[in-house]
Amino acid sequence: MIIDKFKDRASISDLCSWVSFAPSNYYYKSRTGKPGAKPSTHTWRTDGTRVLNGQLLDEIRSTLEAEFCCYGYRNVTSVLRDNAYLINHKKVYRIMDENKLLLGKVISSKGKRCFVQHRRIDASRPMEYLCLDIKYVWVEGEKRNYYLLSIQDVYSRMILKQILKSSIRKYDVIDLFRSIDLKYGIKGVKIRNDNGSQFIANDVKRYLMNMEAQQEFTHIATPEENAYIEAFHSILQREVITRHEFNSFYEAKTTFQRHLTYYNQHRKHAAIGRITPQEKWDQYEKQMEKTRCILAPRWEAETGSAGEQPVRTTLANGDDRVGALDSAPAHHQSSLL
Fold first, then answer.
1. What is the CATH T-level fold of the domain 109-337, as seen in this structure?
2. How would DSSP label each residue in 247-305?
3. pTM of the predicted model as reported, rounded to 2 decimal places
């Protein structure tokens, strides 16, 4: 640089003036790392003590691990202040962001997805194939949409579970599958869904993989590959949504609860022989009971009275198999053939 070449003959300010170069640019030295002050490593409490941010992080994790807790950083800030921390929401945001604890900030999906190979599903028993999807529900009284997530058993066309919420997140999907697993068991079940952000999330895929369920995705812009749940949505549109103008979320929720009971227990379904989904499921149960009665004497003769039962029941007798919005699942899990 010409200024460095002649700086022993004239002052830096004169040289910069002669070449029309700002002295501040000459003296500027670039810095490495993030600009600004370094983030604090401790957090103050109202009693005048300080704790390490690692301890604060443990408390944040403890808050978020509570059942049903889906707090964002502002609610977490409020909880920490209730627990005598002197902290603002910006610091809570930074700590939660660094540790990937922010609610719904980014839906992360890595790895290959198993896409649908055949559009038609030939289910031979209940809880062999499940389909799920989300439908928009307009609530006129609140001038906004809510989201209805339904999970359907393909064999019987029964709706196992529904939730109606202002938003459906990956945590809601996991909780829904958890409740179904507690009641029916999802090990070995094949699950078909579209490519919504709630379904492709790594946490959802990981949960289903750990439960040994097989998740498959429809191709982009191909709703016909999820025709079974789409057909149910068509029924919902015709029988509920176009016939009701909802004044509130509560009215919509109770209406869908009543329709779910009607659909599962009373509405005849053409695709399964003009019987109800409940009857279709019960027919399979009765057939399995006959099979057990036939095989039991032969099994005992071959293995003795101490032999294990070769055929396992799907559900206990009298168990309520009708899904309900936000209903608490029976803490009962049984296996399928």
1. Nucleotidyltransferase; domain 5 (3.30.420)
2. SSHHHHHHHHHHHHHHHHHT--BGGGTSB-HHHHHHHHHHHHHHHHHHHHHHHHHHH-T
3. 0.59
